[in-house]
Amino acid sequence: MKKILLIVIDGLGDEPISQLKNQTPLEAAKTPNLDFLAKNGICGLVLPFQFPEKPASDISHLALFGYDPKKYYLGRGPYEATGIGLKLLKGDVALRVNFATVNENLKVIDRRAGRIEKTQNLIKTLSQIKINGIKFLIKKSYGHRAVLVLRGKNISWAVTDGDPQKVGERAKKIFPKNKAAKFTAKILNEFLEKAHQILKNHPFNKERERVGLFPANYLLFRGAGEIREIPKFNEKYGLRACCIAGGALYKGIGKILGMDLIKVKGANGLPNTNLKGKIQAAKRALKNYDFVFLHIKAADSLAEDGNFLGKKDFIEKLDKNLELILKLKDVLIVVTGDHSTCSILKRHCKIPIPILISGTERDKIEKFSEKECKKGKFGKIKQIDLMKKILKYAK
Ligand code: ZN
Q1: In terms of domains, do 96 and 189 share one?
Q2: How many whole angstroms from 59 Cα to the centroid of ligand 1?
Q3: What is the per-residue pLDDT across 186-230, written as a single tens digit (0 to 9) for each?
Q4: Which position among 110, 159, 162, 388 has the lowest Cβ density within 10 Å, counted as fewest Cβ atoms?
Q5: How far is the CA of 182 from the centre of ligand 1 (A)?
Q6: Which domain holds residue 88?
Q7: 79: CA distance to ligand 1 center in Å?
Q8: Does residue 200 sit in the same domain as residue 98?
C-alpha cells in the first residue's frame, strides 16, 4: 500500500474574475508543479459536505476525513481550543472568539478588527472577569482569533452564536437553545457587556483608533461545544496519521481524531507562513507515517478579504515549494481544498472543489484548475465518500 499525503489548500476553488481575464485565482496562477502532479494522476471535483449550502471549514474537514459531521461534529470551539493546546475537561464549554470592531450601536464594522494580531494585552485584561463563580479562560489563537472556555457548574454548550457573520449587522445576543442553557446564555451576555466596556476604554485600542486602525472593541462568539470521545483515525482506517497545520482549528481537528501534531517553526496559518518548512516536514513525516495531512490556510483568508491577487500569488508561492515532493516514490499525493472561497463575494461558497490524485492512473488533464478538473476522469464525488476512494487508489 502507498503512503498518502493529503494537501488541503483551504478555500482553494473560486469563480472566474474579470480582473484576472475571467480566470479563477488558481487558473491564473502559474503552477508548474501542481500541473506536473495533475499530469501524473487523475483530476476531478469534490462537492463539499453542506452542498449546496455555504460550507464551513470544520464540518468540511470532518467530511474530508470520512467522519459524518451529523454524528461527530463537536462545534467550532472545542477544535480551536484543542488546537491551541488547551486541555478541555469534561463539562467545559468552549467557544471560538473573534476580536472585532463595532460602533456605538454594536453594529459590526469589521469582523476581525482589521485582522489584528497583537491581542495579548487585551486578553490579559479580560482574564480578570469572573461571573457567578464561573471561570472564564480566554486564550489567544493566531491572528484575530481567540478561544473562550467556561468552566464551572450548570453550564451548557446549547447556546446561539453572537457573531452575525456580516458587516453592518448588530452583534447578536446569546440565546439558550433549551432550558438547561439559560444560565450559560445569561452569563455569556454579561461577559460580553463587561468585555466591551473594558475593550473600548483600553489604552491599546485608544491608540489603534488614534492611528486609524480598527479598535478590537468587541468579542464575537460562535461554535459553542464540548469535548467528547470519537473514533480515532488510525482505528478507523488502520493508518498511522499526522497533522501539519498552522491554524488552530485544523490542529484541533487532527488532534481530536488522534493524529500526531508535527510542529513547524513559523507555520502560523497566515500568508507569510513557513511553506517550505511545512512541506519539508511533510516529506520527512512520510517516513514514519502512513497518512500525512498538510493544511495550508491563507488561500482562504485572502479570498475572504477579497484579495484575489493575493490568493493567486499565494498559490504560486505554494507551488514553488511543492518542488520538494515531486519525486516521491510510493506516495499517493492528493491535493484539494475543504471548500471553495469566492474572492468577489468574500466568503465561502458552494463551487465544487478541484482535486488531483497523483501517483496512480492518469487522465489527460495537464493544468490544475476548476475548469480542467471538471473534465477529469475522477469525475465528481461527495466529500464524505472521498476517503474511501483515496484508500482504493493507495492500494
Ligand atoms: Zn476552510
Answers
A1: yes
A2: 9
A3: 999 999 999 999 999 999 999 999 999 999 999 999 999 999 999
A4: 388
A5: 32
A6: 82-225
A7: 13
A8: yes
